[in-house]
Design brief:
Layout lengths: L9 H19 L5 H29 L6 H8 L3 H13 L3 E4 L2 E4 L1 H24 L7 H8 L5 H10 L25 E2 L7 E8 L4 H9 L7 E8 L2 E6 L2 E5 L1 H5 L1 E8 L6 E3 L8 E7 L5 H9 L7 E7 L6 E5 L2 E5 L1 H4 L2 E6 L6
Antiparallel strand pairs: 1-2, 3-8, 4-5, 4-8, 5-6, 6-7, 9-14, 10-11, 10-14, 11-12, 12-13
Length: about 350
Amino acid sequence: MLPMNTFPDPATALLVFAALTLAAAIALWPRRGIFARIRRAAKLSERVRLEDGIKYIFNGTSGGRLVSVDGLAGAIGISSDRAVDVLRHLERLGLARLEGGDITLTGDGRAHALRLVRTHRIWERYLADRTGVASGEWHAVADRLEHGLPADAVDRIAASMGDPLYDPHGDPIPTASGALPPARGVPLTDIAVGTAARVVHVEDEPHEVYRSLVAAGIGAGCRLRLDGVDSTGYHLTVEGRRVAIDAVAALNLSVEPEGEAVADEGLERLDALRPGEEGVVVAVGAQIQGSQRRRLLDLGVVPGTVIRAELSSLSGDPTAYRIRGAVIALRRAQADQILIRRRASKAAA
């Protein structure tokens, strides 16, 4: 005869049964269960790899570069064996063609690639114009957002911005029908010393080179003058500031020449003003975009506005400026992007 205490307590058994039932429901629920979510995540990861593969082939063939299995593996961060599987999958889907050593896109593959490129560049334009995301992050954020957004949603975003033709780096944005606006400008390396030009395209890869250009204050839309070229690189005046970049960085810039250099002498940055000094706004630098640019424009920081430096904080950042009768605090990073000509008179406007 078994002792009475060997039988489980009915309440405990009921709780255990309920807990197991709940756990099974959570795991096996058709759409929201753990297993369903794992399957969706796996499918999404596979879709991302395939779409990244399509973009790699499109960018490579469009740029006249060699498209290879090892190149694909490096571009999307997978092994060479996995890259072969991706290419075979694209071939089965009728999106890519592997003939001998050549890897190309089919007509359907190219159309899919153009939709991906359109989505990516629309996102970059949106991030630049409508958010405070830093320029160095546009590409990475757009990479994460480009997958899975329906074409009609992309079209609505584009329409809200006036259907832009170029992204903030100056790359052409494919239209909804798949037409690609023409590339603009000539390589910086092709213009003559002494020529003034406007930057129309900044290649954002490799990222290290792009970051060096951002650090030098060079972005699409800014004006520069080529002052000289020597063994150390290219010497430029960029919106009134002298900078030097190496030959690799220079190859990543396309410009539209504006003829002989106009006078940049006397241009300074707003942060050069000391308390009591005044300057007249010439321009807001191309590096200031999105919400920051709108805020400055709303404050009246437009060409012709007189700005007076009032006082600096103990650390020197921020500084208070008088702008159209109002005293506004600006960080040094913002003031550094406002181009001015110093006023000799100390009288407030």
